[in-house]
Write a structure and sequence with these properties.
Elements (H helix, E strand, L loop, with lengths): L5 H9 L3 H23 L5 H15 L9 H23 L2 H13 L4 H14 L2 H12 L4 H8 L3 H22 L2 H4 L4
């Protein structure tokens, strides 16, 4: 199964071959876990969310039209689920708790690992669309075209979204951390 292309595995999976779908899971589970952790920032629920992503993908497989690459389609399923979770969380999060997290992060020393944690936090402060766009482009290294398919928007809009996300991230960095401290990380 490992020598088969995604398209071949998808066709087999659509015909009920669970081993073929298992191979697709193996190929993309790392990518999905990374995306979940970047968007949600909570590794403790990554297993459950990833399992839900693959269950949703399996159930939707008969409707997969092959207009996009399988990986892009799977990213989109993951993105949609993560955004739903983010929206639910934002309603539940207490503002004072966020301020406490922010205060603690500012008091940390400015070592590289700590700076990266602050950048991840800043990314999580962006809107879900900006956060996802930055993550997909700069963490996963996806092309603008792939990102536009995942976000379900035109290519030009995606480029603008990523540009605005960078500008917003820089603004947040200037306000909350200081640009000189994190410019080497970005």
């Amino acid at each position: 199964m490992k020598e088969l292309k995604d398209e071949e595995l998808v066709l087999l999976s659509q015909k009920g071959d669970k081993q073929a779908f298992g191979e697709l899971i193996e190929r993309y589970k790392g990518m999905i876990f990374t995306m979940i952790n970047r968007i949600l920032g909570d590794p403790s629920i990554a297993d459950d969310v990833a399992q839900d992503v693959f269950i949703r993908a399996y159930k939707a497989l008969p409707r997969f039209r092959k207009e996009a690459k399988f990986s892009t389609w799977l990213h989109r399923i993951c993105y949609n689920l993560c955004i739903t979770i983010v929206k639910k969380r934002r309603k539940e999060v207490d503002l004072s708790y966020r301020m406490e997290q922010y205060q603690n992060s500012i008091e940390m020393a400015y070592e590289r690992k700590e700076i990266q944690e602050k950048v991840r936090w800043l990314i999580s402060e962006l809107s879900p669309v900006y956060s996802s766009a930055i993550t997909l482009r700069h963490i996963h290294g996806l092309s603008y075209k792939e990102i536009s398919e995942i976000l379900g928007q035109p290519l030009g809009t995606t480029k603008s979204t990523i540009l605005r996300a960078r500008e917003q991230l820089k603004k947040l960095a200037l306000e909350k951390i200081g640009w000189d401290v994190i410019k080497e990380v970005l």
